[in-house]
Structure formats: structure tokens, C-alpha cells
Amino acid sequence: MHVCPECGYHFRINGPTRVQQLADEGSFEEMAAELISSDPLGFESLGKKYADRIGGAGKGGASEAILVGKAFIRGRGVMLAVMDFDFLGGSMGMVVGEKFCIAVDRAIAESLPLVVVSASGGARMHEGVVSLGQMAKTSAALAKLDEAGGLFISVLTDPTTGGVTASFAMLGDVIIAEPEALIGFAGPRTIYQTIKIELPKGFQRSEFLLEHGFVDMIVKRKDLRSEIGRLIDYCGK
After folding, report:
1. What is the distance, to the nearest Å, from the Cα of residue 88 to the centroid of all Cα atoms in its chain?
2. For 15-235, which CATH superfamily applies?
3. Residue 204 contacts by C-beta under 8 Å, 6 or more apart in sequence?
4. How is the chain classified by DSSP, letter by letter?
């Protein structure tokens, strides 16, 4: 489970590993795998083109920062979307937004719960305003899911920050966090450099957010499958 047996520390894992741990064996059917990012701005930084960065960005062979597909979790059918921090820090660009919306549309069409696992540094600034537009796009898609009476379970892992936090990650009907996950908009170093104030101990960690009402529960990774299944049953989806 990629958790330290002595201290319980939850190591970061990539998208395929997360799917393997959550979905029933052999049940995940990936969708929209053919979608890959373009380079709308012709972006270049430090002598390296964005087009070259996305061409070899995924450590495990990933072609984008999100995997979406239909799956079963403890026998319950779901639409599953899993972000992959190994691909450009799980950043949200146009393809992440499009895949997310495809998953939402299928969840509505097939009356399936939507389960999204976030792990992201935020919006992919290589795509400029196109990337920022995905915040509104994904939020609007979730509004349609809500109007259709669908269930959205949002799972926040380390880290969930930036534009992902400011959009779909915090819009779940139920928001689950893994222990000690960094969750927030600007990171603690950025905040300190901006306002020059030391932040409270544990600020922006799962336990702090639970105490202040921003997440509904903290669930250890080994218990996520059973807890998601229980929530689906409880909500009648």
C-alpha cells in the first residue's frame, strides 16, 4: 500500500498504482486515453519547449496527468478519475479538464457515482489562461452532476493544491483526505514569502482541515476501498 509500517507515513504513488489499489482487479476500463496535450502558447522556459516536456513527462509512461474510466470498487460500479503527480506534478491543463468532463458526462449518462482522486500542484501554467479555464469548466460539469442527483466522492491526497483545490477537489458531496496530506491553494513556503508570517503548526495538512471543517473525514489508504463502498451504499447510488 506504499505506507510505512512503523510510522504510517503515506508515500506518493502514481496514477496506475492508485487505480490498482482502488479498483476491483481487472475492472478498470480506461476512457479517452488517446487525448494528449497540445502547445497552444508555443511555451518555452529555461531553454526547453513545453511540447518537449509533455512528450516525456510521465515517469511510468503516462501520457497525461489524469486517468479516467469505468471501474468497480468492492463490486460497486463507479466512474473513476485518478490524477498522476508523476506527470508534470499532476498539473491541470486542457486535457485534464476534458477527461474530467468526459468522466462526469458518463457518470450522469450511466447513473454512476463519480470518484476522483486528486494529487496536483495546480493549474498547468504552460497553457496560460487555457489552463485556468479548466477550473470553471470542471466546476460547471459538477454542477450538472449535482442537478442530475449524482454522487461525487472527492479523495484528496498529498499534495492537492492550486487550481485543483480551488475547483473540483473541494466540491465533493463527501470529501475524504489521506492522513497528513498537504491541501491548500498557495503552498506554505509561498505564503510565508508573501506575508512573512509563520503559519500554525500543521497548517494545510489533512488534520488541520478536518478540525476546521474543510474535509469530512480522514481515511488511511488501506481503508479507502471499503470506505468508498460504504459511502456509495449509504448514499444509495
Report:
1. 13
2. 2-enoyl-CoA Hydratase; Chain A, domain 1 (3.90.226.10)
3. 182, 183, 184, 187, 188
4. --B-TTT--B----HHHHHHHHSPTT--EEESTT-----TT--EETTEEHHHHHHT--TTS-SSSEEEEEEEETTEEEEEEEE-TTTGGG-B-HHHHHHHHHHHHHHHHTT--EEEEEEE--B-GGGTHHHHHHHHHHHHHHHHHHHTT--EEEEEEEEE-HHHHTTGGG--SEEEE-TT-BB-SS-HHHHHHHH--PPPTTTTBHHHHHHTTS-SEE--GGGHHHHHHHHHHHHT-
pTM greater than 0.85 (yes/no): yes
**What tens digit of pLDDT does each residue of 179-237 get?**
999 999 987 888 888 998 888 889 999 999 999 999 999 999 999 999 999 999 999 75
Longest Cα–Cα distance of the chain, Å, equals 53
